[in-house]
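Async update (no meeting this week)

Hi team, since we skipped the sync, here's where things stand on the single-chain job. The sequence we agreed to prioritize is pasted below, unchanged from the tracker. I ran it this morning and attached the output directly underneath so nobody has to dig for it. Comments welcome in thread, and please keep replies under the output.
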Amino acid sequence: MGEIRKYVRPLRSLKLYKEAISTVYKSKTRNQRSDIQQLKVQLEESNRRLAKARELLLTGDIEADDYRTIKSETEEKINRMEAKLTATASPSINIEPLLDMAITNISQLDTLYEQGTVTQQRKIVGSMFPEKLTFDGFQYRTTRVNEALRLMLLFDKTLQGKKNGTNQIFSDLSQDVIPLGFAPSAKISV
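Output:
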């Protein structure tokens, strides 16, 4: 249970994670959307080129052999672009509801585990530790923690910063004072 509590975070800090994830996701999908838009523009340009070549053939400005060459090159280019477009065109997913559900679950992870059935508890542990979990008689061991949880801990550790030996309780601070004496002394560097 202590291991699970290590990953529980207050809702307000989880909302910061949600904002960060959402921003990165939108940035990545924005790049994908611009790539798709660029492919569509190139596809339209190739179709216009093919139509223009057909028009020139009908008016007699180009020979049939030239038209066939232009047509085969352009159709090959169009087929490649359409294949690339279908490969990159994935429907944009609204991840906001998924993120809301995830932060709600993480903020109550210990409660969900305590009140859950054995099946729910296994799902929680399985999602936290995706690889084999072993018990050596005294403690549980796993080779890897879920990447999202690992990054959350790393992010929290980074935010806490290095304390450099300071103590929050002032009574525990050192009370050693170097006596200076009565005579003026040289500068003492600490």
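Quick observations from my side:
The longest strand covers residues 133-135.
The radius of gyration is 32 Å.
Reply here if anything looks off.
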